Amino acid sequence: MATVELDNIKKRFGGTQVIHGVSTAIEDGEFIVIVGPSGCGKSTLLRMVAGLESVSEGEVRIDGERVNEREPMARDIAMVFQNYALYPHMSVRQNMGYGLKIAGLPKSEIAAKVDEAAALLQLEPYLDRRPRELSGGQRQRVAMGRAIVREPKVFLFDEPLSNLDAKLRVQMRLEIRDLQNRLGITALYVTHDQVEAMTMADRMIVMNAGRAEQIGTPLEVYERPQTLFAAQFIGSPSMNVLDATMQDGVLHLGGATMPAPTTATGKVTVGLRPEHAIADPEGPLSLTVQMGEPLGANTLLHGRIGDGSEAFTISLPGVHHATAGERIAFRVLPENLHFFDPETGARID
Amino acid sequence: MEKRVTFKGWLLPLLLIAPQVLISAVFFFYPAGQAIWQSLFIPDPFGLSMQYVGLGNFEYLLGDPYYRASFLTTAVFSTLVTLASMIPALFLAVVADRLIKGASVYRTLLVWPYAVAPAVAGVLWLFMFNTRVGVVSWYLGLLGYDWNHVLNGSEAMGLVVVASAWGRISYNFLFFFAALQAVPKSVIEAAAIDGAHFWRRFWTIVLPLLSPTTFFLLVVNVVYAFFETFGVIHTITAGGPQQSTTILVYKVFADGFVGQDLGSSAAQSVILLVVVGLLTIVQFKFVERRVHY
Amino acid sequence: MTARDPLVAAAPPLKSGREPAPGMVEKRGRSLWLSHAVMILGVLIVFFPIWLAFVASTVTQSEIIRPPMPVWPGDQFFINYKNALFSGVNVPVATMLMNSLIMAIGIAVGKIIISLLSAFAIVYFRFPGKTIFFWLIFLTLMLPVEVRIVPTYEVVAGFGMLNSYSGLIFPLIASATATFLFRQFFMTIPDELAEAARVDGAGPMRFFWDILVPMSRTNVAALFVILFIYGWNQYLWPLLITTDPEMNTIVMGLKQMFPSGDDFAHWPTIMATSILAMIPPVIVVISMQKLFIRGLVDSEK
Lengths: 349, 293, 301
Prior knowledge:
The complex is a heterotrimer. By secondary structure, chain A is an alpha+beta fold. In chain A, 24% of the residues lie in helices and 35% in strands. Chain C contains 16 helices and no strands. Chains in contact: A-C, B-C. Chains B and C meet through helix 1, helix 3, helix 4, helix 5 and helix 6 of B and helix 1, helix 2, helix 5, helix 6 and helix 7 of C. Chain B: It is a multi-pass membrane protein.
């Protein structure tokens, strides 16, 4: 059980800076997801917490103690790798017990802890198999088991589900979350998949180009994205973004005008989630449909907004038959409009 | 491809690499340096002092008809060994590749001679062609052919070539067979459906697909003929008759240890060094992958 | 035996109304038997010298010196082999066998150990002079012992290592081939494995022993086969540095059994010794055939 604090963490590889100062305080037992596109520095950040990369500047604290200079082992963390990194020549039992063996625990104690973790993960039938004799999901569990037996202060997950097929991924998502809940161990979880982030996180860190764009609960990020990047990265299908103008408290958008509750004036960037469009023959906005995607529970309609040429997507509940060229009028509740500074991408309230 | 370096410290890796570096320094670099150094001197007739002669040893060597003859001998020898070991191996591999059952049995049987040391191979072939007791020379005698490799230089060359090539057939067979097994059967079948007959398919499809293996084996066999056949020559002919089987490596030995001409032997070593270097470059450049024993 | 005929004969009938059966291109009937016949003939020809040596090791000297010698084994097997093993010519062959065994195992084990260590250092650490050491080791690839025999001999003589096992072994374990092989293999091991070991609390040497060495088992075994044969088959080097017959290896000692001058060599003993000289490497190759072929193809291609 532990808190983790990141205090203005920076990372340089040679001359290039890849992490530009990330700070956050993670509470005991919290599940934090670091999410972002590939190359955003999320894995590097995690590896710095693990002690696999050195910290160029700033401080990593676990339970209030600076751990920058400590070996991974001495940080009392456990890590689950993307490719699981199981020792191929060891049995499942040996894989899970290896860390304890190095720590010098007596054999009987190791066996007890391994059995306990195996029971938790339903791995008992496989304890004497080698990793190559296991399925992807089973290997994933062994990697988890290896982390659990150590009873670490912090779990670190580096894209642990990306090698699994979609169905298994959903199942493991729940399992990991459930396990972490029961054990109450603080966890940092890296993924590029925003659905994973939304469903698993207590709080998430949305990263882009080495910066934390926003840190908050999934709903906070969804409802009040702090930057244009966070707005577009979280949510599926992703948020529509349009150039617009604010004049005297009136928004000029896609050939229509509407009142808008914002302090912004002049040119603004407006974000509008597809699922917030409400079909309404009287609505001020309209979509010229190019293509429809019926998903069953809802229907995605892709096209152009108004008479303009900007691509736009709306999501309407239920089945909706629309033909190409059809024009669909809709409206949006003012509170569902997001305003961003066109220069900096920062949110304007 | 670089690895993420995962362990810290510099003393441990230096200790780990030390045995290899130390042994290489003592038994490789120092002797190689000595060879280069000694090649610039000649000992006086009493062996008491060394006289600096610059490139004199090299000039002398290159003007020496015996040395030039040894170059030619080496060229002939290595060409013949390479051909005599590769052609039968390719032939056997092609035939074995056509068999669904039993191919691995033949492979097991054919792998034997690879394990036989060149010097032992030399003794086996010497025994068969011995002028007094040899079975083969006796039957040749019955046919009216008087075999005597002790006196006849061409016969001596023929014998060391065959004895050297014999064990290599196994080796080359293994590589050709593995390469043939890797040729996709669909390619062959497609060609068969197109109406190409076996012989034609072999020339136009199989052989080109084998060319990386062939080239690799070519280089490796030349290296073998140059440097690893000493045992065969020493046991069968000792370089004779009249130096007709004295290849370069044998001459380094003969001049250095038997003739005690250290300067010349060292200069020959340096020339061989250059030859090895060139062969290695060829090998790396064209064969990409490395290392041979 | 000519190269052409069996192949041409094995080709399918020129004209037929049937479609070729996929997967069965020319692998039936007469041509199949011909292929087997060719292979058997090839094996017989390749084996003939070994067979003859075996026959010669089972007959008497007088049967050999009156050509043609018999082609079937005689009844002198035990006498000849006993004579070779325990009396020999200059020294009992048993002694030479032991010397060869020590040399071959020494070279194989020594090379494997120093190569594992240096490959580990090169792949898993960053240290001053790494590039230089790497290239120094690389250069030794290009220097077979045959090329630098005189100065190497002087070095070994200077250390007083003539007629010693260390003199037989050390100059031959320094080549870089095995190091490169292990380096190549280590490069294919995912980085995460070393990182997982670090997270588990393993230091570098612990990782080396617990993870890297066990994972290299097949490579080590394959390399052992090749290096054993390399060491066993050495000729020139033992010839130079073992002047004491007690230190002769069997492969070089074989030649020493021939008398100088015009005397008849004692062929049954010599041939028994040849057979004895072949047996260990052949056993190693046959028993580890799969590994050996893999090692060969890995190390050379």
